[in-house]
Design a protein that fits this description.
By secondary structure, the chain is of the alpha+beta class. It has helices at 22-29, 36-41, 173-177, 185-207, 227-230, 248-259, 273-285, 316-320; strands at 47-49, 53-58, 65-67, 78-80, 94-98, 103-111, 114-118, 133-139, 156-161, 163-172, 211-213, 221-223, 234-236, 266-271, 290-295, 298-304, 309-314, 328-331, 336-341, 347-349, 359-372, 379-382. The relative contact order is 0.19.
């Protein structure tokens, strides 16, 4: 069986798979159904939370690339840079490389965004253009020197809410006692309700907006933030020279420079029919798509490129929603996690009808949210209408 990064287990669902709750039961019943993301999340390292607002810490190394602010001659010893988040990483002894001229400079004093430098380390001092790219290229100290000014950076705190999802079914006492040729109506409605319930969660995990209403009251309403809100790397093909068009070359550059710039070399791609058609057109010319049969209950097509592998799946929800036809949502599964409030993962609550109701009422209830440990490892391509 084919393994997928970030998912536990060794293969597809089979008769030996024992679901722990209704969410995993749904994944067993509907492996290629309306909620494939839920099927995959059912096989991730899900984690319970003891608070409806859960937090994580997102940390990454800085780029440490500066931009010159104003032209400088080849003899000037003061260099001014734009005020960016990377400026504090410049200390006395830092080396700056002008990538346009290959000149190396050593910083001897720092005054805000003004650096006093020794020019032309190793030779080759040259004029610095306005807007020049200056890379922090290491540190050099004299023999017997003291320690440099310490620098540090803190992680960013991210958070999301758990959202309460409910789907109920009800049958009258008369219907419950009626012999139907179509089978047990109660069980039929429970099966359909479970599918609808998981579809509700699936849609919230894509379209949800993080919010809390009446947060200071005893009964607040919380909404979990979804992928389309949380993913910051977005390629909008409608802004290309030819609106909606992304050529094979442009798509390749997007893979190399953006989609696989961060995270793992294998990512899951949920796409609409229009985006899939564009991938197929490109695939006919160059790629060798291979099928990943029922891996973890979802049948993918693997597109192997020099940048990395996309495991592509035509999401049924993207068929149902016209605006998603030409979209791709690309996910790095090890950086996604299903979070449920402790003790309130998907469950069937039976017989919740009022005492005077002549019949039965049940409901599926889940209090859960979606956690992204990093945003940059995921990507969205939208409005890709043609190749």
């Amino acid at each position: 069986m084919t393994a997928i990064l970030g998912l536990r287990g060794t293969g597809q669902f089979d008769s030996d798979f024992r679901p722990k709750n209704y969410r995993e039961l749904y994944s067993l019943l509907e492996p290629n159904g309306t909620s494939p993301l839920q099927s995959l999340l059912g096989m991730t390292s899900s984690e319970a939370t003891d608070d409806p607002e859960f937090r994580n810490f997102r940390d990454e190394l800085p780029d440490r690339v500066l931009t010159g602010n104003g032209a400088v001659t080849n003899t000037a010893t003061t260099v001014t840079v734009a005020n960016t988040a990377d400026v504090p990483f410049v200390v006395v002894g830092s080396l700056l490389s002008n990538t346009a001229t290959n000149e190396m400079m050593r910083v001897t004093a720092v005054n805000g965004t003004d650096f006093t430098v020794t020019r032309g380390i190793g030779g080759g001092a040259a004029a610095i253009a306005d807007g020049a790219e200056l890379v922090i290229a290491g540190f050099a100290d004299q023999e017997g020197g003291s320690s440099p000014t310490p620098v540090s950076f803190d992680p960013v705190v991210g958070s999301n809410f758990t959202q309460i999802f409910k789907t109920s079914v009800s049958i009258t006492g008369t219907l419950d006692s009626t012999n139907l040729r179509t089978g047990d109506k109660e069980q039929e409605d429970l099966t359909k309700a479970l599918k609808m319930h998981m579809s509700d969660i699936e849609r919230a995990f894509f379209f949800g907006k993080k919010a809390e209403v009446n947060g200071s009251s005893a009964t607040p309403t919380r909404y979990t933030g979804g992928l389309l809100e949380s993913i910051t790397n977005v390629t909008d093909a409608s802004t290309n020279t030819t609106a909606g068009q992304m050529t094979e070359k442009v798509f390749d550059r997007t893979l190399v420079e953006d989609i696989f710039a961060y995270g793992n070399p294998e990512k899951v791609c949920f796409a609409g029919a229009g985006a899939i058609a564009n991938l197929m057109e490109i695939g006919k010319n160059r790629w060798q798509p291979t099928s990943v049969d029922n891996a973890y209950g979802v049948s993918f097509t693997r597109y192997t490129t020099f940048a990395g592998d996309l495991l592509v799946y035509l999401h049924p929800m993207f068929r149902q929603i016209p605006s998603m036809k030409n979209q791709m949502v690309i996910l790095d599964m090890p950086h996604l996690k299903y979070r449920n409030l402790d003790g309130r993962d998907t469950q069937l609550q039976r017989d919740i009808q009022a005492p005077d109701f002549d019949g039965k009422k049940h409901q599926y209830m889940t209090e859960c949210g979606l956690e992204l440990s990093h945003s940059k490892v995921h990507h969205v391509i939208k409005n890709w209408t043609s190749v």
